[in-house]
Amino acid sequence: MMKPSIKHYSIEANMAHKFIASSCITYLIHFTNALEDIEPFPLAHYAAKHWIDHAGHTHTDTLASLAFNLLQSQSIIFLNWIRIYDVDRTHSHMELSRLPHKIPTPLYYAARAGFSGVLKELLKQGADINAKGGTYNTALQAASAHGHTAIVELLLENGADVHAQGGYWKNALCAASQ
To answer: Which of 10, 43, 121, 133 is in Cβ range 3.0-4.6 Å of 104 for a Cys bridge?
Structure first.
């Protein structure tokens, strides 16, 4: 009997990232109630912190649909994700009682992560393209700071204010140059 070659034991990286991202988002989508204690959910912090990293390696319609479900405007699921781990505040701790008005918009997070499909859907639903909030102050600055040129173009085409001031880099041009 022949031994199987090593390739029989390998996992294709993009497929693994897609599976992990989908699993993380699916896990987070199940938090449909206000969270008081996260201890009974051992994967919550990992899922909240890393789903964007895994999703960034692969883009599929299924993954975009899951991400859109998570990023529904001010849904309890979206708020719980940010309360568990806010990718915009990487050195912070969980804030399970963080108030909704203290959390940037889903459009901001879609732009920061570089998810064009999700961003387009949020814009179709009437998301405020120039809403203020977050480390970078606007979705345009967040996309610029993270090098998402296609997102920057999409935001500009849809009326993002290129002159908006504030945030970590003060404006979109400074964010892009960094």
So the answer is: 133
Q: How far is the C-alpha of 69 from the C-alpha of 99, rounded, in Å?
A: 20
What pLDDT does 1 receive? Answer: 67
161: exposed, middle or buried (C-beta count within 10 Å: 0-12, 13-18, 19+)? middle
**Kindly report the CA angle at 70 between 86 and 55, in degrees rounded to 5?**
75
Tell me how far apart the alpha carbons of residues 153 and 175 are, in angstroms, rounded to a whole number: 14
- Rounded distance between C-alpha atoms, residue 81 and residue 58, angstroms: 21
Integer Cα distance of 18 and 73 in angstroms: 24
The predicted model scores a pTM of 0.88
Q: Which of 99, 16, 100, 113 is nearest to 64 (CA)?
A: 113
> What is the secondary structure of 94-155 as a DSSP string?
P-TT--GGGS--HHHHHHHHT-HHHHHHHHHTT--TT---STTSSHHHHHHHTT-HHHHHHH
178 has a pLDDT exceeding 90:
no
What is the structure's pLDDT at 104?
A: 96
